[in-house]
């Protein structure tokens, strides 16, 4: 599948989704066309969600690397390993004390 970067398509996908919603709300479409538009809208929603997840991952990486002077280009493969490392380090936190437990 040769799609552009999800972030670059986000605004266009939102605009297309709004047009689909408007057409469905007007009720002028045939059942067949309404189903096709609904299917297209669901696909656009998934693409928008992917774009938001990608943006969130970029923000997490930038936040973790905020002390570094240079930023590295975004790499989808490194995101999973970075998140996994963060999750492991959070689980093995030795600074935990009984005072941290809410009553």
TrEMBL record:
It is found in: Cytoplasm. InterPro entries: Exonuc_VII_S, Exonuc_VII_ssu_sf. It holds the Pfam family Exonuc_VII_S. The keyword Amino-acid biosynthesis does not apply. Residues 80-89 have a biased composition (Polar residues). It catalyses: Exonucleolytic cleavage in either 5'- to 3'- or 3'- to 5'-direction to yield nucleoside 5'-phosphates. Bidirectionally degrades single-stranded DNA into large acid-insoluble oligonucleotides, which are then degraded further into small acid-soluble oligonucleotides. Belongs to the XseB family. This is Exodeoxyribonuclease 7 small subunit. The lineage of its organism: Bacteria, Pseudomonadati, Pseudomonadota, Gammaproteobacteria, Cardiobacteriales.
């Amino acid at each position: 599948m040769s799609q552009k970067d999800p972030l670059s398509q986000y605004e266009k996908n939102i605009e297309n989704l709004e047009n689909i919603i408007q057409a469905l709300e007007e009720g002028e479409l045939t059942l067949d066309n309404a189903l096709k538009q609904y299917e297209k809208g669901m696909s656009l929603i998934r693409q928008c969600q992917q774009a938001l997840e990608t943006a969130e991952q970029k923000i997490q990486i930038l936040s973790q690397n905020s002390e570094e002077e240079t930023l590295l280009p975004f790499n989808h493969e490194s995101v999973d390993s970075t998140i996994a490392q963060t999750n492991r380090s959070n689980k093995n936190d030795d600074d935990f004390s009984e005072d941290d437990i809410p009553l």
